[in-house]
Design a protein that fits this description.
alpha+beta; 12% strand; elongated; 10 helices
Length: 230
């Protein structure tokens, strides 16, 4: 259909240009045809058709642009968690491609955070209450974490924070600020407190040769000795 429209527009433009050239360069012919009402009507219809075609092509362009934006938004949505809007596991996979060499992994830090009491909240107050706690926590995590590094939801109640140029002091600063925000939230919402456990791994400590080596170490550390955020 697009090809047909293009061919049609090309033919109309050629005809219109031919008419215009004849009128412009042939005075006798111009005098003759100017008195020919049929020709004038044909000429007017031709240019009206061209104008209509240009408007149609312009609308097609806007529609294609809008469709491209929608496709891009849908693609972005596939990398975002539906409940929280944070980058999801697929997004973390994409982020991992950034750190594809030992040099790029240098001084990288990974913090694994889990909501310790989410199971109890789901059982006692229902899934909706649990989702609200997760959503509230993610809002806090995002407001604190974006100034430190990359954050994402890796599974139901597990979240990852990736920090560049990270040392133990960076981890403590981040967790300290997050802890203060969680404390304020719990003071305001004592019926649905957020309780956190976490672990952290530094590339400087494990000499990771791959991005997921760092994450694996964070999970192993969490399994062996999770720290409570108090």
């Amino acid at each position: 259909m697009k090809l047909t429209k293009t061919i049609f527009m090309t033919v109309l433009i050629v005809l219109a240009c031919l008419y215009f050239a004849i009128i412009l360069f042939s005075k006798d012919f111009r005098s003759t045809i100017m008195s020919d009402k049929l020709f004038l009507a044909t000429f007017a219809i031709t240019w009206l058709s061209i104008l209509t075609g240009f408007v149609s092509m312009f609308m097609d362009f806007l529609l294609l642009k809008k469709n491209a934006e929608v496709a891009r938004d849908l693609n972005d949505l596939s990398f975002l968690d539906k409940l929280t809007g944070l980058p999801n596991r697929y997004s973390i996979d994409r982020i991992s491609q950034k750190y594809d060499s030992p040099e790029k992994l240098m001084h990288l830090g990974c913090i694994l955070i889990a909501i310790k009491n989410i199971k109890e909240i789901n059982e006692d107050k229902g899934r909706a209450a649990g989702d609200k706690v997760i959503s509230d926590f993610c809002s806090i995590l995002e407001s604190v974490g974006t100034q430190y590094g990359l954050i994402g939801r890796n599974s139901g109640n597990e979240f990852l924070v990736i920090l560049e140029n990270c040392d133990q002091n960076s981890v403590e600063l981040f967790m300290g600020e997050l802890g203060r925000r969680i404390h304020n939230h719990n003071a305001i919402s004592p019926d649905s407190p957020i309780e956190l456990e976490y672990s952290s791994t530094l590339e400087d400590e494990v000499s990771a040769d791959h991005f997921y080596t760092l994450i694996t170490n964070a999970y192993q550390s969490f399994e062996d000795n999770p720290k409570a955020l108090v």
